[in-house]
Amino acid sequence: MSIQTTGKYAALVLLASLAGCSDSAxxxxxxxxxxxxxxxxxxxxxxxxxxxxxWRMDFxxxxxxxxxxxxxxxxSIKAELAKGASGVSCLSEADAAKPGPDFFGGKGAxxxxxxxxxxxGNRVKMALSCGMGDLGKAKMNLDGxxxxxxxxxxxxxxxxxxxxxxxxxxxxxxxxxEGACRGDE
Length: 185
Fold this sequence. Notes:
The chain is an alpha+beta fold.
């Protein structure tokens, strides 16, 4: 191995180790990441703002944990939740620089708040807590990559449903910028 190749290898190892480091955006330690704390995290880590406009988000769930249900019922719940959470959203110019938690919460989510929001380059880790109307509460962990026109996250979702108890799901969330808002988002 040449010195030049060895130097490149060492640089890659250093970059890979730095990418694994994360700091906490919750600087005041209250368990919630405020808009100001999130803005500071994005500024500090050189966050590339998302493009304003129409965004399509899709959820695909690969695993579900509901102990009392059979496989057919689990498959039905996964499909229904993925369909209900997927959809389109309009991201304003102001929100593109600092997207709120409701943007990532999915269709039907309300009163979302960030519990974690960490950025290192294009790597993003988020933890959200959202209301789901009559369905109860949801906690979501997103871990993946984000650019100005797309994102892809591994997703861990826990939904507390009054009639069924706790439902845990794993899957993927993807988002893609589709141009200008149309008014039907």
